[in-house]
Amino acid sequence: MKLISNIELLIKKSGYKKTFIADQLHVSVQQLRNYETGKSLIPIDKGYILADLLGVGIEDLYRRE
């Protein structure tokens, strides 16, 4: 099973700037980009914060392939 990140698409739909989201997560914009591309997985605590910010469930941040 492979996890595919939906984070980039969800951020684009939200209208938030990446700098705002990165600040809320206490990460750099580069680290946020790593979450978007799937280079690294978002830690569960930050995943819940991001899901709340984007108005989605935490299960929506990734899809299984």
UniProtKB/TrEMBL annotation:
Domain of life: Bacteria
Pfam families the record matches: HTH_3
Domain HTH cro/C1-type residue range list: 22-61
Signal peptide: none
GO molecular function per UniProt: DNA binding
Cross-referenced CDD domains: HTH_XRE
Record-given protein name: HTH cro/C1-type domain-containing protein
